[in-house]
Design brief:
By secondary structure, the chain is mostly helical. It is built from 8 helices and no strands.
């Protein structure tokens, strides 16, 4: 179980790092604006010396940064995809289509979504967020992955791709 939690936190770590990189790419035009002398003067009047650095910290901070939200949503989405692929495999094994029963009315749909979202949320809470466990792993990964970031990054990428491949395979079968 320890290895699963370690690998799950590793995937979250690299998703957060990926979010930081993509935010830097998409925010680059806005960051260029913050380098303008007039805008720097406006911020200096408010007591902000380097507005560009503040924006980067707001996005890249692992504890409260904006990048942790989409990465967390992605982690929950991966678990929902895993659950749904297992559901599809069970349907294939018993030879019945059970999905139609969940889309009869709104209450059935809400129940169906709750059955998939709740376990994903509980698992992510206990493996990532309880007592900020992911921050402890992030510190460990910053030290551990200094020389092997590319290796573990690819490993995380392959784990994510395997979740997507599993859901695709479950629709084929």
């Amino acid at each position: 179980m320890k290895k699963i939690i370690w690998n799950w936190n590793m995937v979250y770590y690299f998703l957060c790092r990926w979010e930081v990189v993509t935010q830097e790419v998409f925010n680059y035009p806005f960051l260029l604006l913050l380098r303008n002398k007039k805008i720097k003067k406006l911020y200096a009047k408010r007591g902000v010396k380097n507005p560009e650095q503040i924006v980067k910290n707001a996005v890249g901070n692992s504890k409260s940064g904006a990048n942790s939200i989409p990465a967390g949503i992605h982690m929950g989405g991966l678990l929902v995809l895993l659950e749904y692929s297992i559901f599809n495999f069970i349907q294939a094994l018993i030879g019945k289509s059970l999905v139609q029963y969940f889309f009869e009315d709104v209450l059935s749909l809400i129940l169906f979504l709750a059955l998939f979202i709740t376990p994903a949320g509980i698992m992510n809470y206990y493996t990532l967020y309880k007592k900020d466990k992911y921050l402890q792993y992030f510190k460990e990964f910053d030290k551990t992955f200094k020389n092997n970031k590319r290796k573990y990054g690819w490993r995380s990428f392959l784990i994510i791709i395997s979740f997507y491949s599993l859901i695709a395979l479950s629709f084929i079968i």
